[in-house]
Structure of Pyruvate dehydrogenase E1 component subunit alpha:
Amino acid sequence: MYVDMVTARHYEERLQEEYLEGKQPAFDISAGPIPGELHLAAGHEAAAAGVCQHLRDDDAVTATHRPHHVAIAKGVDLERMTAEIFGRETGLGKGKGGHMHLFDPDVNFACSGIIAEGCPPAAGAGLAAKKRNTDSVAVAYLGEGAIDQGAFLESLNFAAVHDLPVVFVIEDNDWAISMPKDRVTDVENGAQRAGGFDMPGVRVDHDDAVAIYDAAKEAIGRARDRNGPTLIEVQVHRRMGHFMGDPESYRPEEDQEAAAERDSIARLEADLQSHGVDEETIEELRDDAHERVEDAIDFAKDQPEPDPSAAHEDMFVNPPSGVTDTEPEYDLAGGDD
Ligand SMILES: Cc1ncc(C[n+]2csc(CCOP(=O)(O)OP(=O)(O)O)c2C)c(N)n1
Ligand SMILES: [Mg+2]
């Protein structure tokens, strides 16, 4: 868990630096080595590491618009993921999806820029596992800002009614862009939503990786044993802006300071030390993680950009005529249309 967490933290800090290159002084979102929006997840690492530790490659995970920590913990190929974020041809989506649309079929990982969008596909993956009679499970991540979305509530219902092996994980960072949680919902915590669907709902109040690990162990075990879905809410902290370039003028300074103080990585380090892991070992793990991140960034920067002529490739199964010269791979309709 520690390795996943320090990898993810260093990754976000390095992307923050890379992203700003060329975008200033006037903020130009398309300039620099990382084009487009960028949502960083520093402060969310424990929610990824504690849950994904229990998962196998055949288990499915759908993450949010803030996906890197979860992708890292799920074992997504870091070099191809970074190439995707840098918009390069060898990226997971040939450089055309960007940081919010990372797909790695080798480890069954996907994410989306549409909030709560990962919930229905996770329920679908759970249904597929059930129909195929395997013991794989699916995990859907969402933010606390998405707990009133229809896609989430319908997926909870579907998973409950069909007893699907799905775990829903709400990352509660108190903010949905500039909107504080208590202005959009009256429930004290998102895990209460579970009651309406007669499924277990658990809240972990601190971004304590070990507590999250324990809660996830039970929920994922329940799903694997075919005992139905669980909803977990985890308190995390947004250490950075909603997206890169967010001036956070809406956010009280104390809130920012509190997020910086409650550091799940420092907490886990202290835990490791109290269990006899020495500082030298911790440093080694951290250095190796940092090196892996640097290698992935170097790799990405070396990769070619996609040829503009590829812009329309891979968009349609059966491209309308004139959209692309490439022959359709499939003929699902079995006819001309
Ligand atoms: C369906 C939908 N509505 C609105 C948006 C715009 N949007 C992007 S992120 C966001 C807030 C998300 O907050 P939360 O779910 O708490 O996740 P966080 O950003 O805090 O991780 C919104 C409203 C969107 N992407 N999708
Ligand atoms: Mg939020």
Q: What stands out?
A: The pocket of thiamine diphosphate (ligand 1) is lined by residues 64-66, 113-115, 143-146, 173, 175-177, 242 (CB under 6 Å). The mean pLDDT is 94. The chain has one domain: 2-304.
